[in-house]
Amino acid sequence: MTTVPRSAEPQTLRSPWVFVPVLYFLEGLPYVVVTSVSVLLLKAFALEFPQLGLENDAIAFWTTLVALPWTLKMLWGPLVDLTLTKRRWIVLTQGLILVGFIGLAWVIQLPGFFVATLFVLLALAFLSATHDIAADGFYLLSMGKEDQAFFVGVRSTFYRLATIFGSGLLVVLAGQWEKITDQPFVVVKETIEGAETMRQVPLTAFQERLQSIDQAAAPIVANEVVRAWTLALLFGAAVYAVCWVLNALLMPKPAADAPIGAVPAAAEVANPPAQPESIPAAPVAEERIGFASALGEFLNRAKIGWILMFILFYRFGESMISKISPLFLKDPVEKGGLGLPTDAIGAISGTWGVLALVIGGILGGMVIAKVGFQKAVWPMVLALNLPNLFYIWAALNKPGVDTVRWLIVTDQFGYGFGFSAYMVYRMIVARGTRYPTSSYAVATGLMALGATLAGTLSGFLQVQLGYASFFMLVVLLGVPGIVTLFFIPKEETEMQIESTGEEDLDALLRSRRRWVPLAVLAAAVALLLLMTLYPLLANRR
Q1: pLDDT at position 486 over 80
Q2: How far is CA 42 from CA 239, 417, 452, in A?
Q3: What SS3 state is found at 333?
Q4: C-alpha to C-alpha distance for 444 and 440, rounded to whole angstroms
Q5: What is the pLDDT of residue 501?
Q6: DSSP-assigned letters across all residues of 176-241
Q7: CB atoms within 10 A of CB 173
Q8: What is the DSSP letter of 404?
Q9: How many whole angstroms separate alpha carbon 89 and alpha carbon 10?
Q10: Short-list 35, 517, 30, CA closest to 323
Q11: Torsion of CA 474, 479, 480, 486, to 10 degrees
Q12: Cβ-based neighbours of 193, under 8 Å, separated by 6 or more
């Protein structure tokens, strides 16, 4: 039997403070640009060029689909393990992502910018998903277990800082450049006692610097909105470039960081671990059988039909809100939106909203740790869904910026608090199986499927119904997820595997008694796919 040496316990070669913050800032930035910033960018262009007919349904549909690589990255994950080192994958993908950011700033200037922009966003998503695989693997190889546990909070913090930088600072800069002209003032729109007024406000020192940059770029990019977003994206690319160079210089080179099956590094050969053990090399066929068994075991869990419905629909309504909210904030009042300027949206959603999301998530984890999932899940599902009622009120009453800020903070806090239950439940489902990692991956994939289908459908429904009716529908779509709480097993002991002696997927498919969970899953997916494809078919008529 072929054997391979088992690596020694990873050791921390360089202080993780040197490279972990930069690494996970670089991991978070492409994700927020593709999934969040792109929505506001395309909306700004749709308002600037109404002749293009770019409506919310197309924006929501395509900006959701281009994010699919993050859902499907498990399909090419083995390629990352079998080829280059994790470090080389990281440096390579970061360099290509930088090229993608520069390319995005270029293609939005083209006459046919929409299709070209989508292709660049899709490429960025694929590169970023590949980078995530390598970065998470490198994290485990570059430090010992104690440091791995300690720096979980650090990596999450800098990932969120990337979110604030992208959906906050970059959007604020784009909004500032949209306002700035060659005049020594900016025009600010205000709503006083229900009436809109325009007021001239002198430029600040910071805005004067932005104005000088804007004037320098004016001969190259004529349109003010296109120029504003081009400059914002180039600024983001410049920051990414600096971080990329720092990351390439500061990341350590662990001896264990080698492709699977490669000859160990010279340092590892010269200093082998004491008393190395040998383990059999797992053939590819065995790995495939293991995944099939994991999927079969997952689908054999007690009340699996209700579990699948919970995973698919728990945040279905909130996923629609997440996609439509920035469009609602940006759309002019005459189209049913709130008509907020771009920089205000960046400050509210990208800064205050993200901070509320983080605080809600932290508090949610603390509550579950204190009282357990069974007691915590009901207040959490209410926190996730009740803030959606505020959107109905906002669509009907058109509040000002200060009130909108509190609406977004409340919504994002509730989302962070409620989503904690979702994350913990996936862990509960995965525990107690022979394949906890694969079971967790299956649950995560189903979660992403529900969110993806909700996002693709949301724009069509909003265009057909208008904002107020759409938000009412979203509230109703939160009910199925709430109903599943009456039926799902909430403790690990209630989730025993209904063993028939046939745990793998092929046996499950052969067993007539086990067709119910697959039928529930297939029906749910078919229904959601039909709902998603209907807008495309309707638009062709």
Answers
A1: yes
A2: 22, 30, 19
A3: helix
A4: 6
A5: 46
A6: HHHH--SSSEEEEEEEETTEEEEEEEEPPHHHHHHHHHHHHHTTT--SHHHHHHHHHHHHHHHHHH
A7: 22
A8: H
A9: 19
A10: 35
A11: 160
A12: none
pLDDT digits (tens, 9 = 90+) for 72-114: 887 787 788 778 888 899 999 999 999 999 999 999 999 889 9
510 or 293, which is more confident: 293
Tokens encoding 388: 């959606």
pLDDT per position as a tens digit, 363-402: 888 888 888 888 888 999 999 999 999 999 999 999 988 8
Residue type, 525: V
Half-sphere exposure of 8 (CA within 13 A, CB side): 14
Q: Read off the amino acid at residue 153.
A: G
What CA–CA distance (Å, rounded) separates 307 from 295?
14
pTM of the model: 0.81
Q: Residue 24 and residue 26: Cα distance in Å, rounded? A: 5
One-letter amino acid at 317 equals G
Q: Which of 194, 154, 423, 175 is nearest to 315 (CA)?
A: 423
> Which residues are bridge partners to 5 per DSSP?
278
**Could you tell me the two tokens for 200?**
């001239």
Determine contact, residues 147/139, Cβ cutoff 8 Å. Answer: no
DSSP assignment, residue 143? Answer: S
> 280: part of which helix (H) or strand (E)?
strand 278-280
Q: What is the DSSP string of 363-396?
A: HHHHHHHHH-HHHHHHHHHHHHHTTHHHHHHHHH
